[in-house]
cysteine desulfurase
Amino acid sequence: MTLTREKTLADRIRNDFPILHQEVNGKPLVYLDNAATSQKPLLVLNTLRDYYEQYNSNVHRGVHTLSAKATDAYEAARDKVAAFINAASRQEIVFTRNASEAINLVAYSWGSSLQTGDEIILSVMEHHSNLIPWQLLAQRTGAVLKFVELTPEQEFNLEHFKSLISDKTKLVATVHVSNTLGCISPVKEITAIAHQHGAKVLIDACQSVPHMPINVQQIDCDWLVASGHKMCASTGIGFLYGKLDLLRSMPPFLGGGEMIADVFLDHATYADLPHKFEAGTPAIAEAIALGAAVDYLSAIGMDNIYAYEAELTAYLWEQLGQIPGIKTYGPQPKVAGLGRAALAAFTAGDVHPHDLSTILDQAGVAIRAGHHCTQPLHRHLHIQSTARASLSFYNTRQEIDVFIAGLKEAVEFFGSLFS
């Protein structure tokens, strides 16, 4: 009697991703750069094509059939995103080009109220997109930046955070999941502590929204941002979640069409939420495709995605641990306080990460090498750069095996050069 292997989540859905079925440098593609950008299922690709082939038109501005259909699809995508993260109202979802623009929106709009001596707390592991806007805001207003350090396990240090926060703190902006360390920050506890001091909280959820269930009402954060291209949608679309009353209190970020109510030569009044923050023709096709991506992820189930990726993560770390000279960063799956994301940043002795990435590419394996837009974190860890393998629910153990075999060959090759 022959036993057949039970199909995994990846086995069931890989045919939905045509890009995965190709060869790179004569080898089957193994795509392990998902933290940088995800691949797109046929549902999303077809949604983009259908928009341009069947009802390409501007939204909100026309009464003809194509405009009405485009508007309905665009606003339906907003409803899907709101439900996906459990927002209390569809008006709490603002479409942006990406998470970076969403953070800048908050920094320039709400941030204009800050004054000299007000404090903003970040962490040393922030992505540049959740660091530079606050640096610029501090330069404009005289606000002071403070930084939470890491625990010995390289996670968000909640005790250090408690020592930094005070009644001078106006904002806590932190990453939910580090794109380098893979640690999951205790955002619910962070938010509760911040609110006790009257501070607002912004969560960078780019690396969490695509991989685990998110409930903004349970977190109770004031803002949350994410990018579509990391969650199986296209580039050029992201969103800002913000509490309704808070968004209503914020002045517009950009001026132009769509965000107005009435315009006169010397003044204007502004549209209600969320359109007050969506100036100009939006990324219509991309927003509709984001809605399709939400449909796709929801049909699989975010609990199922998180559970499957946790299995892959444990296997990835186990295999990396068997290669001499490999040093990994961030908490190991067995010791991570809140679990960890499906990625591993690592170094291999004196071998430059770019060299590792180049050799692996020859084997058809795509990983990331560099500072991953976290230069301050790398300096904090006393390293210049790392290699990073990041997984998604369409990856398999067999692909990890291919990656590990290629990595072993690369380490042995460069080791022979250095010996």
